[in-house]
């Protein structure tokens, strides 16, 4: 940390600002707690900014004490609330946000969110020379440079619980179920939940060629002793030729002999108490954010790779597509025979 910034923050008149932005993810509260407590432990003061960048524009800001973050580690959602701010994508919006920072004596910003939120942080940091640190908070697990994002593990466990239940009814009725899960353009949730539930197949954006091999998928379910089939499908928000409904309709037309149902898990995947893994990850990353500030890091996302804390420049975390491990596709294929 530069001497000037360190002095400013320690003079007790400057604050570290923290906000959560984009889709909420379980474990965000644990991260807010970790940042607040680690900051105070190291002699800094923290202000919480409400509703993401919206609150920075409209000045919805409040100092956070250690007590304010008591008993939140186990809660889903985010006590700071969140939003996808349209206004912050405009230069006028960011100007207002900067004015709020000056008015509130906020010197540095810690942003917990996904791709869009860190993109906002990057642009803002460059425009106004504000030190920003990002924490990966999204159930999609799609940020490059970190093995895991906060909220992914909880969402994955929620999906597994749901699919186990769907399996009971699928087997009882000899049906094919297409289960749609979140992930936007990333198949981590679909691929890994398929492995964890013993599903017959996963249709993921990273492996579109396979996605068209419906016959293979269906065949896997209806062979030998198997008389039902579960296919996990990543949602397809931008493309109508995707998502569970699309594949279910195709099967109904192309294989009318099968009894097909669709289950779209939707936003229940985003809620609930964070898993132990997400609480630990959020605590480690939140604490590391303060360490990073003290080391004069700026415009980096804190990540974890091979269980080690890493600093990933915003440009890398946002721009690069995080690849899915192809061996996971093989594992599912081999085990679902
Ligand atoms: O990015 C997290 C996520 O849950 C995606 O998986 C999903 O596509 C999107 O957010 C849904 O956003 P919203 O809650 O705004 O509809």
Notes on the protein architecture:
By secondary structure, the chain is α/β, with parallel strands linked by helices. Helix content is 43%, strand content 18%. The chain has a seven-stranded mixed β-sheet with strand order 3-2-1-4-5-10-11, with helices on both faces. It is elongated, with a radius of gyration of 22 Å. The relative contact order is 0.17. The mean pLDDT is 93. The structure holds 6-O-phosphono-beta-D-fructofuranose (F6P). 6-O-phosphono-beta-D-fructofuranose is lined by residues 23, 114, 138-140, 182-184, 235, 237, 270.
Lay out the secondary structure.
Blueprint (H helix, E strand, L loop, with lengths): L2 H8 L4 E6 L7 H14 L4 E4 L3 H6 L2 E4 L26 H13 L2 E8 L1 H14 L3 E5 L15 H22 L2 E6 L6 H10 L3 E3 L4 H4 L2 H8 L7 E6 L8 H12 L5 E5 L11 H19 L5 E6 L2 E6 H6 L6 H10 L2
Parallel strand pairs: 1-2, 1-4, 4-5, 5-10, 6-8, 6-9, 7-8
Antiparallel strand pairs: 2-3, 10-11
Helix pairs in contact: 2-11, 6-7, 7-13
The structure holds 6-O-phosphono-beta-D-fructofuranose.
Brief synopsis:
The protein has 337 residues and is α/β, with parallel strands linked by helices. The chain has helices at 3-10, 28-41, 53-58, 91-103, 115-128, 152-173, 188-197, 208-211, 214-221, 243-254, 276-294, 314-319, 326-335; strands at 15-20, 46-49, 61-64, 106-113, 132-136, 176-181, 201-203, 229-234, 260-264, 300-305, 308-313. The structure holds 6-O-phosphono-beta-D-fructofuranose.
């Amino acid at each position: 940390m530069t001497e000037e910034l360190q002095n400013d923050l320690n003079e007790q008149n400057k604050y570290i600002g923290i906000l959560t932005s984009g889709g909420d993810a379980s474990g965000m509260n644990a991260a807010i707690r970790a940042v607040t407590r680690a900051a105070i432990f190291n002699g800094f003061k923290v202000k919480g900014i409400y509703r993401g960048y919206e609150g920075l524009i409209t000045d919805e800001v409040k100092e956070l004490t250690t007590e304010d973050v008591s008993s939140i580690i186990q809660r889903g959602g985010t006590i700071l609330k969140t939003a996808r701010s349209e206004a912050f994508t405009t230069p006028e919006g960011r100007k207002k946000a900067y004015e709020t920072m000056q008015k509130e004596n906020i010197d540095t910003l810690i942003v917990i969110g996904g791709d869009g939120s860190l993109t906002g942080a990057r642009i803002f940091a460059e425009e106004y020379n504000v030190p920003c640190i990002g924490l990966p908070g999204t159930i999609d697990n799609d940020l490059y440079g970190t093995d895991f994002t906060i909220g992914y593990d909880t969402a994955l466990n929620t999906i597994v619980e749901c699919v186990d239940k769907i399996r009971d009814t699928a087997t009882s009725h000899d049906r094919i179920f297409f289960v749609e899960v979140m992930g936007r353009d990333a198949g981590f949730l679909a691929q890994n939940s398929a492995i964890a539930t013993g599903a017959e197949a996963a249709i993921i954006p990273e492996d579109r060629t396979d996605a068209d091999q419906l016959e293979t998928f269906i065949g896997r379910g209806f062979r030998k002793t198997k008389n039902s089939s579960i296919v996990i499908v990543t949602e397809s928000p931008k493309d109508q030729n995707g998502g569970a409904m699309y594949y279910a309709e195709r099967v109904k037309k192309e294989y009318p002999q099968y009894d097909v149902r669709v289950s779209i898990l939707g936003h229940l995947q985003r809620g609930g108490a964070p898993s132990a893994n997400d609480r630990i990850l959020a605590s480690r990353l939140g604490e590391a954010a303060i360490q990073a500030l003290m080391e004069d890091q700026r415009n980096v996302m804190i990540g974890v790779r091979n269980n080690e804390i890493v600093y990933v420049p915003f440009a890398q975390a946002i721009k690069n597509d995080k690849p899915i491990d192809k061996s996971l596709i093989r594992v599912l294929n081999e085990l679902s025979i």
